[in-house]
């Protein structure tokens, strides 16, 4: 690879030397050779497209040499001249030189000259020159020659990014071009017209309404119109059955162009809340495409059906026979999509037949496609738990075949999930994993499986059968796997008292291992498990110490250990923040200005809690509030483009809540003084305001913080709503001197309301083994309650709403639904509440 880069660099250097010292002379000789000049320009374009850049002197030399080629009448050379000028992007001084020639070509009788001159002029000119040629561009848009009209329209699409006001004046001409009979002109005109009106929802709706009556002839333009129609349908927010323009989409399914038919079918399948009745005509069309002779149509159809199967599997079942024939398709992408779609839509009786077909299919595809198939099989097993035996056997068979890390990891993850979700699959699944680590080449997978065996193995009916597989790792693997195997053996000894004597014998052998980590672990477990290998019950505290869940994120623990300075006082693990992850303070930008941190405390550790705690402890009014429990994410109290940008952070203490209002003045001509927030707590009866701290001065674009502290009853989760008003003295600032006037005017600015909810008192904490943690807590800590979530479009959305409502941390990968086919879902959440000494666990069933 390095050799190739060196050759490429050397080639560019040689080519540049040849061009600038020898070949540029060909462009300036009196008798031009069009062929040789074209070859020189081709080499220059090659250098530019390879990422090479010319110096200012080189670019100027090339530009002036190329401008002399306008005297040539050769069409091929003239096209190369247009290309090189467009790529060089000359400076404003140089543009003037070539402008007259380009404007002459723009009014030429040769259509090729006109089209290319328009493209180049619009690329290299600024707004001042653009106004001079605007009249010619308008004429070109409605030109009879489609090449010229398309060139003007495409140039308008590019100019809309830099000079929108000028392009918006062309609406009448563009509207006329939409009615053109030339397919490409109509396509480009529709694209430009929609971009001109894209910020006016009503104008876009009217455009779609007028064009859906049958005035669009170009298939490309028709596809664009279908996309714009789908956008209008999404923004209309109408209920199913009253959906506007659906009849137009359905009529496009009978269009003679295949691209239009597919675009319409795809648009229908992607409609929000689409019903089975609305899907039927689109599915019928896609089914016909499955048997097409064109691979692109087969691929497009099966990919769309694959997406539909995630939300409406029953609607796709009629296509199963056609998709089964695609399993043997020469295009492996088509075959993979067909397999995964069949796995999503198949019924319980067809599982065995599909497994036979997939077995022959897996050896012919790459690992990335295999991973997709494995994930689909996992979803199928969760959908039909009674078929776990055949599906688990299939996963174990492919696990023993050749494959990369990601592929093997996907299989292992699938087996682990099936073991957790299907209790009957635990015994066979664990044995499959044990057989895999006998010949596993990936250290990460071996350690993860050993850890999982240590959690689930002791709970099986015969834990002793796994010991042989685990101890083999101590003799046959590297130090990392050996250390993991020692920990797993110790877990069996701690959890299964009958196995303790045998475990002690094995652990004593590990003391003589060559690796320090393995020896240290074996020594620790031998000294702490107790009983000297006799059949006695392991102490509960020892189990918690050795194998209990660490309720502190490792990132936070690492940060605290790095910041700890050795002293007489030992390290206190209780001082480590227990937030799941540290998020940077949200910054809000004044319009058009550089980012300015809102409420950014002095520089300190990366933990958000540490940063806020340092800021609050530096304020005397809050020094006696005790230890900060939690700080919320910033909540915006103003819109993005308002005069003043304000957000608030809620700081929770034992008996106090402090609101930190982060403010920015976005008006350059104003200085704000004595800035404070007046908080109305009439709808928060449990809170009483105790103190506040205003901002003395708030210059333009400089962040400042004002604080309001409330006292609340100890021992209860106080909630309520607070109304906020920003109060300040505003002084005018002289733009020339930057000095403010002496006299100011008192003013107020209404902010959004703020709520303190139960989730504010919950600190997210990760728990690696939810089931063990749940079982270790007594019934006294359990509470059942009901919450209303309102209507939700999907189960995944409902699960997300529960997580946000309770403010807890999803455990064991339960952040969302794994299967699209579930009608029920169990989420395990964990947190530490403010008014509890222990941890609070919640299991939520929908």
Automatic annotation (TrEMBL):
Q: Where is the Clathrin/coatomer adaptor adaptin-like N-terminal domain?
A: 32-529
Please give the InterPro entries that the UniProt record associates with this protein.
ARM-like, ARM-type_fold, Clathrin/coatomer_adapt-like_N, Clathrin_app_Ig-like_sf, Coatomer/calthrin_app_sub_C, Coatomer_g_Cpla, Coatomer_gsu, Coatomer_gsu_app_Ig-like_dom
Q: Where in the cell is it found?
A: Cytoplasm; Golgi apparatus membrane; Cytoplasmic vesicle, COPI-coated vesicle membrane
Chain residue ranges for the region called Disordered: 580-605
What's the protein's topology in the membrane? Answer: Peripheral membrane protein
Q: Which UniProt keywords apply?
A: Cytoplasm, Cytoplasmic vesicle, ER-Golgi transport, Golgi apparatus, Membrane, Protein transport, Repeat, Transport
Please give the chief subcellular localization of this protein. cytoplasm
Q: Which family does this protein fall into?
A: Belongs to the COPG family.
Put simply, this protein is called Coatomer subunit gamma
Query: What is the originating organism of this protein?
Result: Salix suchowensis
């Amino acid at each position: 690879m390095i050799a190739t880069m060196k050759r490429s660099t050397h080639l560019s250097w040689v080519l540049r030397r040849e061009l600038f010292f020898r070949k540029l002379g060909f462009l300036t000789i009196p008798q031009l050779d069009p062929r040789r000049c074209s070859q020189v320009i081709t080499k220059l374009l090659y250098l530019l497209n390879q990422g090479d850049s010319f110096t200012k002197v080189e670019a100027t030399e090339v530009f002036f040499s190329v401008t002399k080629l306008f005297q040539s009448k050769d069409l091929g050379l003239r096209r190369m001249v247009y290309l090189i000028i467009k790529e060089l992007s000359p400076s404003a001084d140089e543009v003037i030189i070539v402008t007259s020639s380009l404007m002459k070509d723009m009014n030429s009788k040769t259509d090729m000259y006109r089209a290319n001159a328009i493209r180049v002029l619009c690329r290299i000119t600024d707004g001042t020159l653009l106004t001079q040629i605007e009249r010619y561009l308008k004429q070109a848009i409605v030109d009879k020659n489609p090449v010229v009209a398309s060139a003007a329209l495409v140039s308008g699409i590019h100019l809309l990014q830099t000079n929108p006001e000028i392009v918006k004046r062309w609406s009448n001409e563009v509207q006329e071009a939409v009615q053109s009979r030339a397919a490409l002109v109509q396509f480009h005109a529709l694209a430009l017209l929609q971009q001109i009106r894209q910020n006016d929802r009503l104008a876009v709706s009217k455009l779609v309404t007028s064009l859906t009556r049958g005035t669009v002839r170009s298939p490309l333009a028709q596809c664009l119109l279908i996309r714009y129609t789908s956008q209008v349908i999404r923004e209309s927010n109408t209920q199913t059955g009253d959906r506007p323009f659906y009849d137009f989409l359905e009529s496009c399914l009978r269009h003679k162009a295949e691209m239009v038919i597919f675009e319409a079918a795809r648009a229908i399948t992607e409609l929000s809340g689409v019903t089975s009745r609305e899907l039927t005509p689109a599915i019928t069309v896609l089914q016909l495409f499955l048997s097409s002779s064109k691979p692109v149509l087969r691929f497009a159809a099966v990919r769309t059906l694959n997406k539909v199967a995630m939300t409406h599997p029953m609607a796709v079942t009629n296509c199963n026979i056609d998709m089964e024939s695609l399993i043997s398709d020469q295009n492996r992408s088509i075959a993979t999509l067909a397999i995964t779609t069949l796995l999503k839509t198949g019924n319980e009786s067809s599982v065995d037949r599909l497994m036979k077909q997939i077995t022959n299919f897996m050896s012919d595809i790459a690992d990335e496609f295999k991973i997709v198939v494995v994930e689909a099989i996992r979803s199928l097993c969760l959908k039909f738990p009674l078929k776990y035996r055949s599906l688990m056997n299939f996963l174990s068979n492919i696990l023993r075949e050749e494959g990369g890390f990601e592929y093997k990891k996907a299989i292992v993850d699938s087996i682990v999930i099936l073991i957790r979700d299907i209790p009957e699959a635990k015994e066979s699944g664990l044995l499959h994993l044990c057989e895999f680590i006998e010949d596993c080449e990936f250290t990460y997978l071996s350690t993860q499986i050993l850890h999982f065996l240590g959690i689930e193995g002791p709970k099986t009916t015969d834990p002793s059968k796994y010991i042989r597989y685990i101890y083999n790792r101590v003799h046959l693997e590297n130090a990392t796997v050996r250390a993991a195997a020692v920990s797993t053996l110790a877990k069996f000894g701690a959890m299964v008292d009958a196995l303790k004597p045998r475990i002690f014998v094995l652990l004593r052998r590990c003391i003589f291992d060559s690796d320090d980590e393995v020896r240290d672990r074996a020594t620790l477990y031998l000294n702490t498990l107790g009983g000297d290998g006799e059949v006695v019950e392991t102490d509960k505290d020892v189990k918690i110490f050795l194998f209990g869940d660490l309720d502190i994120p490792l990132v936070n623990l690492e940060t605290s250990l790095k910041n700890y300075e050795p002293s007489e006082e030992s390290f206190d693990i209780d001082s480590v923040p227990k937030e799941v992850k540290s998020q940077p303070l949200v910054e809000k930008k004044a319009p058009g200005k550089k980012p300015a941190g809102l409420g950014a405390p002095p520089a300190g550790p990366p933990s958000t809690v540490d940063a806020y705690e340092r800021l609050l402890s530096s304020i005397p009014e809050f020094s006696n509030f005790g230890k900060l429990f939690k700080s919320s994410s910033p909540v915006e109290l103003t819109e993005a483009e308002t005069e003043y940008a304000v957000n608030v952070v809620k700081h929770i203490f034992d008996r106090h809540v402090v609101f930190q209002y982060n403010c920015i003045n976005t008006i350059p001509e104003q200085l704000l003084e004595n800035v404070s927030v007046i908080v109305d707590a009439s709808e928060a009866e449990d809170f009483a305001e105790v103190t506040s701290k205003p901002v003395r001065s708030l210059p333009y674009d400089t962040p400042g913080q004002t604080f309001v502290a409330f006292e609340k009853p100890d021992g209860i989760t106080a909630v309520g709503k607070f109304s906020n008003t920003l109060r300040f003295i505003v002084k005018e600032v002289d733009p020339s001197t930057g000095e403010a006037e002496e006299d100011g005017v008192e003013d107020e600015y209404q902010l959004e309301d703020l709520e303190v909810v139960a989730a504010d008192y919950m600190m997210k904490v990760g728990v690696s083994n939810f089931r063990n943690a749940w079982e270790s807590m007594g019934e006294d800590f359990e509470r059942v309650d009901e919450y209303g979530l309102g209507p939700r479009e999907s189960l995944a959305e409902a699960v997300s709403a529960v997580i946000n409502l309770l403010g807890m941390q999803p455990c064991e990968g339960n952040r969302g639904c794994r299967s699209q086919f579930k009608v029920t879902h169990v989420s395990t959440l964990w947190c530490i509440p403010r008014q509890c000494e222990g941890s609070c666990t919640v299991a939520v069933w929908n």
